[in-house]
Amino acid sequence: MTQTVEFAKMNGLGNKILVVDMRGRKDMVSPQAAIALNADPDTAFDQIMAIHDPRIVGTDAYIDILNCDGTKAQACGNGTRCVVQALAAETGKKAFTFQTVAGILNASEHEDGMISVDMGLPRFRWSDIPLSEEFHDTSRIELQIGPIDDPVLHSPSVMSMGNPHAVFWVDRDPMDFDLARIGPLLESHPMFPEKANITLAQVISDSRLRTRTFERGAGLTLACGSAACAAAVSGARTGRTGRRVEIDVASSPVRIPLIIEWREDNHVIMTGPAEWEWAGHVDPVTGAWTRDLATQEVGTREVGTREAGEKQGVL
Fold it and tell me: What is the pLDDT of residues 94-108, one digit of tens each?
């Protein structure tokens, strides 16, 4: 077994993603490797999406997801779009089925380059999120931060999109809040035994939300796809929006909205972009890495060149 594998530095709406090709190997990307990669400014990331050989018939790959602190993540919508773009460029396929810890995900790349991911079914039961206390109605739970008579944030909508989410509704721009300070307090609140993604959501209209997220295991992030899904579903669930919304991710440098549709069959479909940045090789045990030296510009993105005779691709 060779020591290094190919990886691509990508982003999904600014969400920093490393797509690591672990196909043909039995080992996993280690937590130590993830921590080492995140400590380097050139490879700092929000999630690693490690592509493994399929484990069950009918799937294209098993995806192992790691946060930048080395912990496991159950879901990452923005990262899944990056995986789709990488594999579509490599194989020419447009539709994929992935197995993850959170379940089966179906995804496809459209002709315009946008990518849709079926994020599965939201779960609302308090024990499925999970919460440490029983709530009959999780569309609004008793939780606040700040003075009891004038809380900074209160009464979040909570749910699971394969990972736990708390959506706090705010009446002004989410960028106005000190989420870097508030986020860690709420992420690790005793209410959330497995911690939680913390999202601030502002209603712009019945078809548009503006959000910002402190991501469990990753911290203050530029974007979080599963959090956008949680905000969209929570908006419809509480009567603030319809079942199809645009999500303006306030912290993202990419000014393209995510389109989230909570279909009548209860599936949540997320559509948005992915961007390839550069490629290299990494030791999945230690995190030691090298960047491909030669690159060429194609459109607005780099494409790593390979040795003579090899096909050019993302992975």
Answer: 999 999 998 899 999
